[in-house]
Design brief:
Length: about 180
């Protein structure tokens, strides 16, 4: 009887929403030498096509802290849909809900997916790469992997190969 009650409690607990948005403060508090910031949108097929690639980079380059930025326009009518997308998609990194577009404006992100690669130099971070993850909107058709090549260079103790890459994808809607 106790096992049935425990099982029922576990089912109830597992049905609660366990997804939690990360905050800008979480990103700022993180003191990793390298941080990668991915600007994403729940309704952009270009963002969606790069999910597995982002996850493989996160697994391969453990010295880099990965953060996503939800660039979606949050309204009462779509907030649950947006949250459900980020929860179900399993980006395997904290996702920052940037409703005021602080990070979008600070780093001048234009389209999704857009990535900013930061390196800590003394007490502040410097942008060492800005642009697309690859040279194509959809990952399957890429011929250059800007971010992956840059991370491999850093991992080998060298400077990044690319400082900028053309950002291709869905425009980030501004307020």
């Amino acid at each position: 009887m106790k096992s049935i009650a425990l099982f029922a409690i576990l089912i109830c607990l597992s049905s609660f929403d366990l997804f939690a948005w990360s905050s800008l403060k979480d990103f700022e508090k993180n003191q990793s030498k390298y941080k990668a910031l991915f600007f994403l949108s729940h309704n952009c097929p270009c963002s969606k096509s790069h999910i597995e690639h982002i996850d493989s980079l996160k697994k391969a380059f453990k010295e880099v802290s990965f953060f996503g930025v939800a660039t979606d326009l949050f309204e009462e009518s779509n907030e649950k849909e947006i949250q459900a997308h980020y929860q179900a998609t399993n980006y395997n990194m904290p996702i920052i809900k940037d409703t005021a577009f602080h990070l979008v404006e600070k780093y001048r992100a234009l389209k999704t997916p857009h990535v900013i690669l930061l390196e800590k130099k003394q007490d502040q971070y410097e942008v060492i790469y800005t642009g697309g993850l690859t040279n194509k909107r959809h990952f399957d058709s890429k011929s250059v992997k800007f971010l992956q090549e840059n991370l491999a260079e850093l991992h080998a103790g060298r400077n990044v190969k690319y400082r900028r890459g053309k950002s291709l994808g869905c425009y980030i809607r501004r307020l």
